[in-house]
Amino acid sequence: MKKKWVEWAKRYMPAGIISSTATILSSVFTYKITLNHLTSALVGTWVGNIVYFGYMLGKDIFDTQKRLAQKNIQYSIKTFMQNIRALVVEFGFSELFDSFLIRPTLMYYFPIWVDDIWLGIILAKVVADITFYVPAIISYEYSKKKLRSFN
């Protein structure tokens, strides 16, 4: 099981760190400009998503290209679509609930409840990440077996 934890950390931690930074900074910056919790929550959610999934897609493309190059196989549009499909299977379910319900709701209410924008956004991010990663990891394990065989 330790091997799995290491694998998941290697897969998700870099994107999570970059995305967390983007989420927190964009959300707090937006709040400072607008003084609006809803706008802050939505901007933070979507900036974090763009950064997170941009990184994940880029990493998957890079890793796939590297594996294929070792076999003298070119990366193609078909391979790109396989990368996209695998990411949709891995994140689709958890991302729907996360982006449209859980994360923006938590990022709206936590800063109000704790009366501190920085602490509220950080707490919301941590709680939302827990609800996001559990189904994502389950789906990743499925997609790894069924959808990540590139030839």
Structure description:
The protein has 151 residues and is mainly α. The protein has one domain. The chain is built from 4 helices and no strands. Helix 2 runs antiparallel to helix 3 and helix 3 runs antiparallel to helix 4. The longest helix has 38 residues. It is elongated and about 55 Å long. The mean pLDDT is 93. It comes from Emticicia aquatica. Keywords: Membrane, Transmembrane, Transmembrane helix. This is GtrA family protein.
Please give a quick description of this structure.
The mean pLDDT is 93. This protein has helices spanning 2-34, 37-70, 77-114, 117-146.
Helix content: over 70%
Radius of gyration: 17 Å
Distance between the termini: 29 Å
Mean pLDDT: 93
Classify the beta-strand content into a percent band.
under 5%
Instruction: Report the structural category.
Output: mainly alpha
Uncertain stretches of 5 or more adjacent residues: none
| Helical run tally | 4
Number of strands: 0
Q: What number of domains?
A: 1
Q: Which sequence of SSEs, written as H and E, runs from N to C?
A: HHHH
Overall form: elongated
Characterize the main sheet. none
